Amino acid sequence: MPVCIVSGCGNRHTKASKIYLASFPSEKDTERRKLWIKNVFKDQPYRQPSIYYYVCEDHFEDNMWEKVRVDGKRKLKKNAVPTIFHRRKCNDSSNECVSQMSEDVRASELDEPKIIHTAPVHSSAISHLAEASDSVFSNEEANGPSDVENDTEALKKRLKQTEQMLEEARNQLTELKKKFEQEPHETNKIVRRLEQSNIQLRKCKKKLWKKNKLMMEKLNRQNGLKRAVRKMLTEDQLEVLTRKASRGIKWSIETMTKALQLKFLCGSIGYEELRASNMPLPSQRTLRRFCLQLMSKRAASAKKV
Question: Which InterPro entries does UniProt cross-reference here (predicted)?
């Protein structure tokens, strides 16, 4: 929840109050940014604002605001500069002094936005508290020794409590720093494993793609060979090629005619050489039977005529 950064103010923007909080001018508006820093950080001129620093509406005069808008919202002018600062004074009550010192400690801690790179806060907090206590002692010397001693004891107790709180916060910051340092290491391990798995998957994908390509090429060659063989051989000859023996095959008339032509061209010896070279051809005995059947059929048809 955003808080006014002005020392001694502490206004917050809530649903109930809805206080207007203005952020510091950007680095482009150099002159106005310097005026804001000079007015807000009078006691600490070395401080530089961050994106988490805001100034509430109580620190701007009426002439710094734009005229009443139609939507009813308030808006600062472009050249607005905070000029109203009512600082809280330390009275005799030690509670108000300690609250002012705790706000100074919180303001000093806001200078470091990153948790894991914060410097040890123990010594700095003690120095702030010591300075504040010195100012209290100097202001209360006129009130008498007894009042000063009582206030000093109360302030010492509060200082001790604040010191313990700061020490606990420092320990928590140390533990958080260790966790933040360990988490990137574990994350890097997981990332490296995922990268290695991704590399292996890409290699397997490449191998499968190559195998698939080779199989497709082989299949295309086989299909081409089948088409070429079917142009040269008949179906019964292809069946003989797929079987161990040619017994029981019913040769077609086309195959028998081609076989007779080869036998007449090559002779009996040449024909047997072709069969010995695994050419799917019927035997000479089958050819003789085929010729006898043809002759008997022709004789029967001649008698009928």
Answer: THAP1/10, THAP_Znf
**H helix intervals, 61-121:** 94-109
Contact 24, 39 (CB under 8 A): no
CB 250 within 8 A of CB 216: no
Token readout for 216 is 């497709």
What residues are paired with 22 via a beta bridge?
55
- On average, the pLDDT of the chain sits at 77
Distance of CA 70 to the CA centre of its chain: 44
What would the pLDDT profile of 280-302 be if each residue is shown by its tens digit? 888 889 899 989 988 888 888 87
Among all chains, which residue has been given the structure tokens 């955003």? Answer: 2
Backbone dihedral angles phi then psi of residue 3, each to the nearest 5 degrees: -130, 150
Q: Which amino acid is at 151?
A: D
Q: Is the pTM of this model over 0.90?
A: no
Tokens of 300: 């029967």
Instruction: Match 């060659």 to its residue by tokens.
Output: 221
pLDDT tens readout for residues 228-273: 888 888 888 888 888 777 777 888 889 999 999 998 998 989 989 9
Residue of 100, 111, 110, 118 lying closest to 158 (CA atoms): 100
> Which residue's structure tokens are 């009582």?
150
Residue count of the chain: 305
Distance CA 36, CA 30 (A): 10
Q: What are phi and psi of 12, to 5 degrees?
A: -120, 150
Structure-token pair, residue 66: 């734009």
Phi, psi (deg, nearest 5) at residue 21: -115, 125
Label residue 305 by pLDDT band (50, 70, 90). low
Q: Is 69 left (phi over 0), alpha (psi -120 to 50) or beta?
A: beta
